[in-house]
Design a protein that fits this description.
The protein contains four helices and nine strands; from the N terminus they run αβαββββαββββα. The protein is an alpha/beta fold and 191 residues long.
């Protein structure tokens, strides 16, 4: 029992030291020095995971995000509105070299985004397929002209959520954990 108490005390001491160090570092960094405030917002459309991949759901999802983004901008998020990871789920096709050529169910994203009423930029996040047809998590930066300007793929994936460790070598693991995704590690890390 004494060794359990000492291990617990060590963990508490490490957590406390981390909190103290983090507070010290945060106090040293003054983000407002010479910078303007960013008027940003985050929206969540409430898309059910089971329906997110169906083609007929694209219109419903986009309507929700168009409405929510426009509302967020009207409420003060004039510079940036961030969409959740579920805003596109495996129905986005893109070219890493040309984010403006991205399409959803064959429609140019600029056409889908044209109805978003925000004076600033917005950041849809989701899952798409690059030229190799493998699913990847990604973020698009969409400019005020409603055209995708930059694309970044997620490079560090969550095991047992976004991918199955050794899943390609041992496919039966997906039967044990059927809701685990089949995402590929991203390559495009900078716009």
């Amino acid at each position: 029992v004494p060794h359990l108490v000492s291990r617990f005390a060590l963990r508490v001491a490490l957590l406390a030291a981390n909190a103290v160090w983090g507070s010290f570092e945060a106090a040293r960094w003054d983000a407002s020095a010479g910078a303007r405030r960013l008027a940003a917002g985050v929206v969540q459309g409430g898309v059910e995971p089971e329906s997110a991949g169906h083609m007929d759901q694209v219109t419903v999802d986009m309507e929700a995000y168009v409405r929510l983004t426009s509302s967020a901008a009207a409420a003060g998020a004039r510079d940036l509105v961030v969409w959740p990871e579920s805003s596109f789920t495996d129905r986005l096709d893109y070219d890493r070299r040309d984010p403006s050529a991205a399409t959803a169910i064959g429609l140019p994203l600029s056409a889908l985004f044209a109805r978003v009423k925000t004076p600033g930029e917005f950041l849809p996040n989701g899952v798409g397929r690059a030229q190799d047809r493998r699913l990847r998590n990604l973020s698009l930066l969409v400019g005020p002209g409603k055209k995708p300007l930059a694309l970044v793929e997620k490079t560090v994936l969550t095991p047992f959520g976004e991918y199955m460790p050794l899943g390609r070598q041992l496919p039966f693991l997906y039967r044990i954990s059927p809701r685990t995704g089949h995402r590929a590690r991203g390559r495009a890390t900078a716009p």
